[in-house]
């Protein structure tokens, strides 16, 4: 089946039914991958044998990037596929429909996509098998992740570093990951590094990492029964070793004091294209008179022979190849599966393709959430725009950490925080009062802080790839977590976020798929606060990257203060099957919004702020001010104070934007209710000619593209302009002209041009702003500090 569905769109059991293949049975353009399929199906069969023998709950992750047949075929044979897709019946008609849809327009991909029952890992981007596997078994002690790692994949940075999962997985409370390194020897057209290493060197390598390696290999590659005998012995011992490790931890308290169990790893030397065409002796250069090798070479990687409806010269070789599998021993003449094959498959939810872990989780419900308002700052008209008496209450991330700490207490096995050694830096201090970092190696007191074998935080490996991969595995198996990262280094994993987006988008189209908790990502240590790390740490481009994806599945939030951040997470944790990207400040900031205002901003995504506007609701304005993000809000509101102080007659409206996607106009999408109508957009930003000064956290072209879609021509954005340095807090804003003085200059120049303000007064105002900026440059370059016009400023009530 795995071979046939690459080429055939009908007549799948031609040798069983004695029906010769005709031109119309073949695909015009066969697309797919053969190289890893037979080896993976061999491994899948042994996983099924393990499940039956040990009654072990298990699920499969296919790390080799292609070869989707390795999960499609077993799911079909055990009935899971037909349960998901009733039209794909277990007979000739259903099998033909399955063959046709495989890697075919309007069908399914050649990867292990979200359309494949049992899959939580596609492999479209290589490197994340083990990260996903570990995230999936956290807090699920009964499960084993049967994680097949491709030998090409093993050369990627993320996979190479993910071998260290054994230092974090707790055999007492978590499930197990059984890595199987599928050494088939070749990539697309090159040998693979690990496959050319000797067994001795591989043993040294993996023992150095802390594993107990064992091998499946045989000199005679076509002695299949010997391969099965070896594999059965190796897998049985591996499963028994895992059970012994877990029992020792759960019954005897072992592996809780710095001792790392020697988890098994299986190194399977299974030739590429195993059992397929051996030589391409039909055309091309010859090798020893037989043609160039296909089996056990890179030439088996994709379609291993030139057969299609327009080129049938190799049909005899294809027929001989497929007959070699003796399909008559597995299928009846009507295409139904023989009883002895059915009997071999695990039953019900023990089937890997029907394991509920792989379809939204055993318990995929939302978290039990505390009332976020309990943790909110007491903001009112009397203290708005100033600092709270307690310094830590001005750090939005620290306030959030109080909320997270309570969530940990309410959800002791269903909530985790992931990150790359930045949890303390990101101000999640309150969480350490209720939990530790999970860490299984030796603890050196007093040098190691807040680490131990049990904890709800995993951040002790300096790898964004690992943290993001753990979160994806945790999320796709029905639990809720958060990945917090320095903003600029989210770009390290932006392609991972893309892959997750593609997954949830495809999954949403499958009726049989349950939904998932949303994937929650925090950007912190943000661009306009990088006063000690410098230019390398300045990049808010993840906002633009995610904004390009379909808005049905992406939510991007830019809360300006702690209360809004709390309200946003209350919403994010209840949303389903989304990527929630939250940009949050961790430095002391002015606090702005009451609980009621924050709730409206998080729910509606944006709001006109009356106390920062001089125009009444529905009134025509001379100018609109808007901001999105913590620092832009401070600067825009400070600019409003500057304008209002000198030009109190100017009528303006201030709009705070929290959910940037609400501004986008993408007609024809599934979820338009989050997109403002044109009338709603104009109610905030005025007619197409109304001047808008927009302080933005990210790259300006994102806002420009949004306003362009709205045919709005009055936009003036002040965002990040790819200028930075290691400098002071305020100087970072001045670099990009996002600061209050440049915003105020821009606003007055517009008002002067439109003859709204006195020209002489406007010229004098602009001149005064330039003098302050000159002072700023002089002070920062000479003294290394910010000017008091910034450091001593607080919000002033407007003249109306």
TrEMBL record:
Top-level taxonomy: Bacteria, Bacillati, Bacillota, Bacilli, Lactobacillales
Transmembrane segments: none
Database matches in InterPro entries: THDP-binding, Transketo_C/PFOR_II, Xul5P/Fru6P_PKetolase, Xul5P/Fru6P_PKetolase_C, Xul5P/Fru6P_PKetolase_CS, Xul5P/Fru6P_PKetolase_N, Xul5P/Fru6P_PKetolase_ThDP_BS
Entry's family note: Belongs to the XFP family.
GO molecular function: aldehyde-lyase activity
Annotated keywords: Lyase, Thiamine pyrophosphate
PROSITE patterns: PHOSPHOKETOLASE_1 (PS60002), PHOSPHOKETOLASE_2 (PS60003)
Reported cofactor(s): thiamine diphosphate
Protein name: Phosphoketolase
